[in-house]
Amino acid sequence: MATAAYLAGRKRYQRPQAILWSNNAGTLSSGLYVPTGYEVGADPGVGTSPNLLDQFLVLSDHNRSDMNFIPQRIEQRQRTINGRMRSHHIADKLGMSVSWNLLPSRSHNLNPLFDTVGVSDKTRGDLSLLEYTADGGAGGGDLLDWYNDHTGSFWMYLAYDKYNNFAKDAESSEYGHLGQYNQIIEVFFSDFNYSVVKRGGSNHDLWNISVSLEEA
Known about the structure:
Elements: H1 4-10, E1 19-22, E2 27-29, E3 32-34, E4 56-58, E5 68-79, E6 85-104, E7 123-124, E8 127-128, H2 140-149, E9 154-158, E10 183-198, E11 206-215
Antiparallel strand pairs: 1-4, 1-9, 2-3, 5-6, 6-11, 7-8, 9-10, 10-11
């Protein structure tokens, strides 16, 4: 089950991977937003409810491009008889696009089987677990599977410096959230494109992927 310790174990560097996709909005645990259930590729153990399996996907920062945000202000505007513009604001929604260049088609050479703190056993009998993505995040095939499985909405967790999401106080605690996911948005896919650039000589290829999402 995902916990604050699990997400801390899954991040490779000081900050978590920038994007996580989830089937749920998660819960607040130890001050961190944590998705409910198990990650794709986790080892849940015997007797785990199927409803908790494959509930979220940690996307890789491997050769990731900029995260492009396109705010959309939904409103009704019209000019009054004296020519002045008036507006009835309905909502603000966010569009987002991101792409990967030469992303490995899979994150590992074997099923990673992440344990309860997000770490994988590096040896499997005579085999060694190898990471193909730089941070152990999802490969191209994982992203494609998620796209194929989600014709409806899902949740996107984001980790970037949006400190103003947090309340200001005397201790300036709003500046201490770089190490966590700090924005959660319900989104739909609006576009998903991929190309197989190179076929690897071992057991993975290199893909270019571009994704566009729109807030629900």
